[in-house]
Amino acid sequence: MANNKNIAVKVASRTQLNEDIVRLTLVALDGSPLPAWEPGAHIELQLSTGNGTDEDAIMLRHYSLCGDYNCTDNWEVAVLREQSGRGGSAYIHEKLKEGDVVKVSGPRNHFPFKPGKKVLFIAGGIGITPILPMIQQAEAEGIDWRLVYLSRERSRLVYLDRFEEYDSKRIRLNGDVEDGFCDLVELLSTCDSETTVYSCGPKPLLDALENLHREQKEAGWSLTIERFTAKESALDQSGSFDVVINSTGKRVHIPEGQSILETLRDQGIRITCSCRDGVCGTCETGVLAGLPDHRDSVLSEEERADNDYMMVCVSRALSEELVLDL
Ligand code: FES
C-alpha cells in the first residue's frame, strides 16, 4: 500500500557486502517503530546533493526492503553501485556515512507477493533483495518454494548467510563463469499451472522470462517481475497528443519524441519524478479522461485496465487527448 509520508531516518550501520554492494540499516531518528511493510516493498531515499535547495538538488532513489518484514526497529536495504548510473548509488557508496540522516518516504509495494501452491524465485544479482523477504514468508507459510540465484561469478553472490536456515535442496546458486549460463527453458519446463515465478534482476533476464512466459502459455505458470530499468516499450515515444491540466484547463501538446513529464516541465509544470524509466512509481498521475497508452513496469494488468493512473515519464496516449488530475 502506498505511504507517502516522509520520515527522517538515521544510517545505523553500513556494511560492504562485496566491492559493489553496500548494505544499510536505517532507524527512525526519534527511535520510534518504523512503518510496517510486506515483502516486495521498497522505500524512496531523498538524497541531498548539497547543490541548492530546489527539487533538482534532491535525488530520489528507490531500494527494496530486504530485512525481516516482522521487524519495525530498522529497515535494511542493499545498494549496488551503478557504473553508468545517475549519481544516487555513487553518492551512497562514497558519501553516506553511519549516523547521517536521510529523509525517506514509503514503504510502497509494486511487487506484492501473492504466492500460489508453488513458487520459483529467479533472482539476478542485486535482484535478490526483494526476493529475500518473500522467501522468509514462503518458508513461514509452508509454501513449496525454490530459488535460482544468478550472477556473473559466484563470488559476487551476497546474503548467502540468510540461506543457512533453509533446506539447501531448495536453493541453486549459479555463477555464469563457474557454472555456465542458466538454461531458462529447461528451468521453466519444471513449472506447472500451480507455480508462480517471481523474478527481479537485469533487463535481459526479465525480457527472456517474459518471452518464455508468452511462448509457454499452455504450461499455465504465472510470472510476476520487478524491473530496475525501462522495458523496450518505455523507450518508444512515437505519436503526438494533447494533455489538459484539469485544475487550470491549460492544454499542452506532447510532441513525438518527448515525454509528458519533460514537456510539462518545459511549461513550468513540475511533477515529482525519480527513475524517468517507468519503474519506480514516483510520477504516478491521475487520469480523469482519455485513454493512456501504458508503457511503465509499475501498474498491474488490472490497474492498467482501470486507466485511473499513469506514469507520465514514459506512458503516452491512445486517445487524442488526456485530462490529467493536476
Ligand atoms: S519517475 Fe519513476 S515511474 Fe516515472
TrEMBL record:
Domain FAD-binding FR-type as annotated: residue spans: 4-114
Keyword Iron attached: yes
GO molecular function: oxidoreductase activity
The protein's enzyme class: oxidoreductase
Taxonomy, superkingdom: Bacteria
EC number, as in UniProt: 1.-.-.-
InterPro entries (alphabetical): 2Fe-2S_ferredoxin-like_sf, 2Fe-2S_ferredoxin-type, 2Fe2S_fd_BS, Beta-grasp_dom_sf, FAD-bd_FR_type, FNR_nucleotide-bd, MRET, Riboflavin_synthase-like_b-brl
Keywords annotated in UniProt: 2Fe-2S, Flavoprotein, Iron, Iron-sulfur, Metal-binding, Oxidoreductase
Domain named 2Fe-2S ferredoxin-type: residues: 239-326
Coiled-coil boundaries: none
Protein name stated in the entry: PDR/VanB family oxidoreductase
Species for this entry: Marinobacter xiaoshiensis
